[in-house]
Amino acid sequence: MPRKILVTSALPYANGSIHLGHLVEYIQTDIWVRFQKMRGHDCIYCCADDTHGTPIMLRAEKEGITPETLIDRVWHEHKRDFDGFHVGFDNYYSTHSPETRHYADTIYTRLRDAGLIEKRAIEQFYDPVKAMFLPDRFIKGECPKCHAKDQYGDSCEACGAAYQPTDLIEPYSAVSGAAPVRKQSDHYFFKLSDPRCADFLRGWIVPPHVQAEAGNKLNEWLEGGLSDWDISRDTPYFGFEIPDAPGKYYYVWLDAPIGYMGSFRNYCDRHGLDFDEYWKPDSSAEVYHFIGKDILYFHALFWPAELHHAGFRTPSGVFCHGFLTVNGSKMSKSRGTFITAESYLKHLNPEWLRYYYAAKLNGSMEDIDLNLEDFAARVNSDLVGKYVNIASRCAGFISKKFGGRLGACDRAATAEFEAAFAKGEIAESYESRDFGRALREIMRLADAANLYIAEKKPWEMAKQEGREAELHQVCSTALTLFRDLTLYLKPVLPTLAAQVEAFLDIPALGWTDAWAPLPEGHTIHEYQHLMTRIDPKKIEAMVDENKQNLAPTPEPAPVKHAQHQQAEAKAETVASPWEPFISIDDFTKVDLRVARIANAEHVEGAEKLLKLTLDLGTETRTVFAGIKAAYSPESLVGRLTVMVANLAPRKMKFGLSEGMVLAASDERGGPFLLSPDGGAQPGMRIK
């Protein structure tokens, strides 16, 4: 029976370009959706730009435009890149929409009425000129340890010391230059620690809702105790104001997943569908989220708990994938392997990358590697040498000798294809997102088709009188096999499949069209070349174009407030307290990176250590940090921090520590982990 399926991918943030790492998820999702549609299911693919937050507000201000203008421009850039890679969204929308606002308000008020929202006072630095609370990375001042000037509010880039923004000497706002003041503010928290949430999640985080490996990790977090989640931010902030809290806005991570609902509601309103049929608690429809493993905590703990206690259905499944490396390493701007979607499309066929990613994906959370040499070799061998080769070797004979009309099919030669279809391994592999296994079976069939052609040698038949009927059958059979391979590859190569459908003059292929022979007497069009081999020079040109000189340049001098000016005037004849200075070359030796804490756990036998798994965007590192007294493991998962990425690995009693996270402490307390602003992404260089 046809299934009703709603599918989403994680929402890209409207503050940057789509790159090849992002495309792992969208290509994976698109292949799965196309397969479901070929099977005759009612499958809808919705997504949107994630548009709210302080980084959006400040970037728009810096460019002298409104946030709405910025997000509209980025939306068109993102949509252009997705279209370029044939990602077939049924609706690509924005979280800055009335639909998303409606469901954010609905979920919030229902959680509030259920006693799962709590207001608490917290203290933060406040910019009196910009009239805004400042994230730590927007505060600068003098390091309390080495007295280097113009250091960030969470760590010193000169001496490496970690501290709280309130520890800075003569702090100032990096936004306005004004001296910030300490100010208390009420924030709103979703009480994920409530026993009702834990009880529900304990029964939910099991297959098929999540992969088994994801369930193991989620259970570790759950059993360690869940922390409440700060879901509000203070004005000024680009986002939606909380209904009963003037001047308070939903934190971007609250309304981002609700953007799935907003995008789907927009689709429903335009196509006459019943939104509630998909989102009511007893819905028989299926809802699936494709995400990266770095946001598993949000999608498989916060999100289902919110939905359940707000009276909505929860996802049928959260499908989690790993990260992308290029040539075995994280994407690198200096090596030219941090490649944007736009720059790839200038040089290479998007379906080459779709095929290569599919060949690597197996439905697990394992990272995948884009080895550029292997990429060219596999595409050239599989798609050109095996698949397209079948048509290029046989179609010309049909046109030249038989007027483009097909002959009878050799059913004995199609038997292996019929058996493969009946076995259903390819369909099952697509369904389980094990695309690599599906492609291996497809290429096995391609080998069988090429072996048939090699044994029959139609190029020799064409030279021999009296073998016309045999030639006609062999080439017609080969094209039936080529049609079947096209059907199986269609979810991965939709544009090439459309070209083949036009060449063969057949309707759009559905899954049940497999192995039935092309009709005798059917007329095809003259064969036109379908795909070229990858020229390694094009890959080299793409890499060279993406290489950037990453040598950091000094930041512009900050706007100095009155306290700075007075202090400098008094110190004209006094030796600088922070001498000896370091040079910019000294600074560049330390590679500081934004990292997301993908996992945190206790270390057996260690009184002070926690074992952290840090996501750097394209790789993960293990770090042992002496912060156990200040943090529970579950409170750390998902938050951003800063690490020294080029610190030599250190062999410890409990394992190898591959870096260092930065934290602050003194006689007033600590340690306190550094936290970059919410717009930062794992792997970003701090400079």
Give the N-to-C terminal Cα separation. Answer: 56 Å
Sequence stretches where pLDDT stays below 50 over 5 or more residues: 549-577
Largest sheet: 6 strands, antiparallel
Structural class: alpha+beta
Query: What's the Cα radius of gyration?
Result: 29 Å
Average pLDDT figure = 90
User: What's the total number of strands?
Assistant: 26
Write up this protein.
By secondary structure, this protein is an alpha+beta fold. The chain is 40% helix and 18% strand. α4 (98-113) crosses α7 (252-271), α14 packs antiparallel against α15 (435-456) and α17 (468-489) runs antiparallel to α18. The longest helix has 31 residues, at 372-402. It is elongated and about 95 Å long. The model is unreliable at 549-577 (pLDDT under 50).
List keywords for this structure.
687 residues, 40% helix, six-stranded antiparallel β-sheet, alpha+beta
